[in-house]
Structures
1.
Amino acid sequence: MRTMKPTRSMMLVLCPMLVLGFLYYSSGRLHLRTWGQRPQVDVDSSSSVGRIVASVYDKQGFLIKPDGRLPLELQYKYGNLSKGECKPGYAEAKMMSVYPKFMKPAPMFLDRNYKRLSKINTYPPPFGVKSQEKMIDIILGEAKNYGLGGELDSLSCKRCIIIGNAGILFNKSLGSKIDEYDVVIRLNEAPVSGYEKDVGSKTTMRITYPEGAIQKPELYEKSSLFVLSAFKPPDFKWLRHMVFKEKLQLTRRGSDGFWKSVARVVPREAADMRILNPYFIQEAAFQFIGLPHNNGLMGRGNIPTLGTVAITMALHNCDEVGVAGFGYDMSNPNAPLHYYEKLKMSAIKDSWTHNISKEKEFLQKLVTAGVIQDLTNGI
C-alpha cells in the first residue's frame, strides 16, 4: 500500500492538467477553424508563413476561396429558424466570414449629426461632404426625417432587395417574390408601372442623382423615399431646389455642372427626401473594389455604379440582402440592355467613371460567399 500512495497522488494531479490542456488546445483549434480569422501576426512577406497568410486573402482583404459556410455556432442559430423567417444579422455574419475587416455601423442617410462621421468629413463629393456642409444643413433642417420611417425603423430584422435595371429581369416573373422583401430599393428612372409581373409593385426608396432622376412627375410612385446619391457639389444645390419646391433655373447644357438634362420637379414632400451617406461610395470604391484613390477626388475609373453603392448600403443596414436585375451579357450584343426599353447590349460604351470588370469581381465574391442572393443569376 505504501508504494501506491505516490502514484495515486501523482495521477490526481496529472489527470486534471491533461484534461485542461486538451480542452484549451481543442477550443483554440475549433475557434480558428469555425471563425476563419486571419492570424494576427507580423511576419516577413518573404517567409513561408507570410506566403501562406497572404494567399488566404486577396489584396482587398477578401477570403480567396470562400466555401459559403457559416461558423458552426451560427449554423445552429439560423438552423433553428422557420423556413422563410428573417435571419437577424445574417448578412453581417456572412460578410465577416469572408471579409474580417467589415464594420457594420454606418447609417443609411445623413442626419443632423452627420459631422460626427469622421470618414466623410475629409473628402469632397462623391466620397464625402467636405465644402457642402452649409447646403446639407439647410436641406436636413427642412426634411426633419432621417430614417426609413414608420414600421420599418422598428423592425428587428430587415430583408432588403436592390433592383437593378438590366434586361435580365425581363420575363422572369419575379414580381411577387420581390414584393415579399421588407425594403425594396430601386435605382434612377427604372419604371414600375406596366412591369409589375417582373419587377414587383413595392418601392421603399428610389436612389438617384439629378441626371438619373425620373423627369416626368406622373411616373413617380405615390409613396416612396426619394434618396439623393450626390456625386458632385451641384447635386446638393439641385436637391435644395427640389426640397423647397423652387423653380430650377438652368442655363445651357453643361454650364450648371450637369452632364445631361435633369429633373425639374420631384413630387415628394421634404419629409420624404433623404441624402445617402457618401461613406458607401467611399467604401465600395476604395475598400471593396480597389479603385484608384486619386487623392479622394472623382477621377477616371474610380466611381462605383449606383447599384454597387446600394448593395454596400444594404450590407450595413439589412439582415438579409437580395439583388435582381444585375449583370450585363456583354457576349451577346443583341441582348436587351434594360428591362424597360429596346436598347441592345451593343449600346454600352466604355465608361470614363466606372470599372465594370473590377466591380463585377467584387459582386461575384459576395454571391459566391452567400453574402447576397442573386435572384436573376446575372452576376
2.
Amino acid sequence: MPLFDTVLQEKPAIVLELGYAFTKLGFAGEPHPRSIIPSDLLDHKAKSNGQTTPNKKLFDYANETDLYDQLVEFLKIIFFKYVLVSPKERKIVIVESVLCPTQIRENLAKALFCHFDVSSIFYVPIHLVVLATLAVDTALVVDIGYKEAVVVPVYSGVQALFAWEAQPLAAEAVHERIKGDLILNGADDQLLTDYIIEDIKVRTCFVTTVDRARKWRNDEKFQPCPEVDYPIKGDETIKIPGIIRETAFEVLFPKDNDHLNLANIILNSILKCPKDMRKALAENIVLIGGTTMVLGLAARLKAELLALLQCDQYKDKLFLKTVKFHKPPSKANFTGWLGGSIYGATDLVLSKSIAREAYSKNQQLPDFTNYDETRSHGRV
C-alpha cells in the first residue's frame, strides 16, 4: 500500500472510530488520534427535567430516526468542536467491526453524505487494519471493548469470519460488578456515575493471578490486597476494599458449565480454523481495546490459555504448546484507530472509498468484507 503524491497533496482524510463508550478521531497519516471523547450526547429531555447528568449514550436509541438524529448531533460535535474542519468535500475513514449492525452503518453513511456532504467514505474493518500497525498479515485479534469481547482470526490478510467468537465479557460487566459491590459496602448509588466507576476501575483495580483467583473462588485462605481511599466529592472519600480491587475483573474469567470465559472463546476460535492455521494464530495474538490495558490482564490470559491447552477439551484437538502476544506500537485503546490512519494515508482511500455520486444513485452499502464485490458497487 504505497503512499502516492496525489494522496499527500490533498487534504488528509478524517479517521473516526465510533465505539460504544469512547470515540477516537483525528487525521489520516498521524500516529495517534487528536482526541478520545466519550460517545455521549446531551439528553435535552433529561436536562429539562432538571437531572444532574443529562447524558445518554450515542448508540442508545429507540428507533432508526432517533439513531440518525443522534449521529448527526454527535458528528457536529466531532467536526466543529474537536477536528475543527468543515466536513464538506472531505474524505472520511470509518474504523468499524465487521459485526457492526447494518442499521448503524447505513445511518452513519446517510448522515455523512446527506447532512455533511462529505466526498467519500472508506469503511475499514478494525480486526484487519490493526495488523498494519505490526506489519504482519496473520494474527488472532482479540478486541475487548465496552460491550463485548470479539475474537476474529486474520490469516494472510483475510478475515476468517467463519471462526469469530464473541461474548459479553468486557468493561460493562466489570463496571456492574464494581458498582454492585460498592453499593453493598455502603457507597451512595447517586455518586457512582459511569465516569466515577470507570475512574475507580482504571486507578485502583487490576487482574490477579490464577493461583490467587483459585483460592478466592474455593474460599481458601485468601488475604486480599490493601484497601484504598478514593476521593469522590470534595473532601468526601469512599473506601475501595481490596477484595473489589483484586476480583472485579474475575467476571471476565467465569467458571461455569458453558466454558465461555476469555480464554475459552480464544481457543474455540482457533479450533474452528483449519489445522494448518492454528499454530500461526496461537503465536500471533493481538489484544486491542481499552479493557486490555488493565494491569495484569495479558499475563493472566496467557496463564489461562496454557492451562486450558492441557485440558482434555483442547489437548487432543489443538496440539499447541505455547501462545505468544504481540505488543503494538500504540496504546491498546487506539490501535484500531492507528490502523485506520495508516490505511487512510494510502492509495486505498482513493480506490476503495464510496463516492458521494455513487451513493446518491444507490444508497445500498456493499459488503466491505469482500473487496472483489465492492468493485461492482460504484466505488471510486
3.
Amino acid sequence: MCCLGSDYNYRMASGPSTASKIVNVDDFGAKADGIIDDSEAFEKAWKEACSSQTSVTLIVPNNNIYHLKPLTFSGPCQSDIIFKIHGTVKASNKMEDYGEDTRHWIVFYNVQNLRVKGGGIINGNGRIWWINSCKFDKTKPCKHAPTAVTFYECKNLIVSNLWLKNAQQMHISIQKCVNVRILKLKVTAPGNSPNTDGIHVTGTQNIRIRKCVIRTGDDCISIVSGSKNVEATDISCGPGHGISIGSLGAGHSEAQVSNVFVNRATFSGTTNGVRIKTWQGGSGYAKNIIFENILMKNVTNPIIVDQNYCDQDDPCPQQKSAVHVSNIIYRNIRGTSSSKVAMKFDCSNTFPCQKIMLQNVILSTQQHQTAQASCINVNMPVLPNVSPQCSTTSIL
C-alpha cells in the first residue's frame, strides 16, 4: 500500500526570475520608529510592486521594526513578486485596530508566483490576545483571534527563511492554495499560548513543508479538510500538540484529506506526536497517509487516532456517522512516551478504522519500560517488531 498516488506530481514553477525592479517600503514613507503606524507605506509599496510590468522585489529593510495594522496584499499582479523581509514587521497591540475582522492580520490574496523570504521576523505581538482568550482565562468569552499571516487562493507560492513568533492565534494559514513550498521556517510562541498553531493547511493541494522548527502552544502542523498531496519532511516539533490531521467533521460537516506524507520528524515534549482527530457525526474521509522515520522524546500520546474527538466541556453525544479513516501506515517510529498508553486507536463503532499498518514501531515509557496500546474498533494486522501491541482490542 502506498500513500501518495500517481497523481502526486508536484509541479512548482521554478520561481520568479531575477528581479529587474526594486521597491523599498522606506521610499513610500515607512518610518520604522516604533511609534508611527507603517501600514499605509506598505500598502503603497505593494500597489507599486503589484502593478509592475517586470519582475519586482519588494524590500523590508534590515535592522528596522515596522508596526502594522491589519493589511491585505491583493492580486492578481502584473508580474512575479519577491517579498523580502529583512527586518521585523510587528503587529499593533491594540485590539481595536482590527475592527470587525478579528481573524486576520496580514493576508496575501489571489497572488501567483510569489516568494516571501528574507531572514527577517514576523511578530504577531499576540500576548494581548492570549490573556483575553477563554482558553487562557475561562471567565473571558470565546472569540476569534487573528491569524498572523494568511495565504488565500495563491498559486505557485514559496515561503522560506523567516522567523514567525508570538502570533495572535495561528502563525501561518495556507488556505485554498495550489503548489506551495514552505522551507526553513522558525515558528515560536510560549507553550501555554492558546491556539497558536504553527502551520495550518486547509483546502490546499500540492504543498511541501521542509526543514522547519516549530515550538508553539498548539499543533505544530495542522491539516484539515480539502487538503491533498501534503508532504512534511525534516520537522522539529515541541512544545506543542504535534502534527494533526483534523479536526475533521465538526458540526456534521463533510471532510476530505488524502495523500499525506510525514517523513523525518522529531517530537520533543509534545502533547501528541502524530494524530488524526475527527468528530462524531461528520462524513468524508482521511485516507492514504504515511508517518515514517519519526523520533518521539517524552511525548504524551505518540500515536493517536481519535474518531470521538470532543473539544468541549460537555460530553459529545453518540452519533452514527463518522469521517472514515483508512490506509494509514506508521513506519520506523521510535522513542519514549510520557504516559503508559503510547498508542491509542479510539475508532468509531459504526465506521471502524480500516487498513491500519504498523511496521518497525517501538515505543517505551520514559523509564524505558514496556508501554501499552489501546485499540478499539480498528482493523490492524499484528506484525512483528511492533511494541506495544494492542492490549485493549475490539477489531471489527
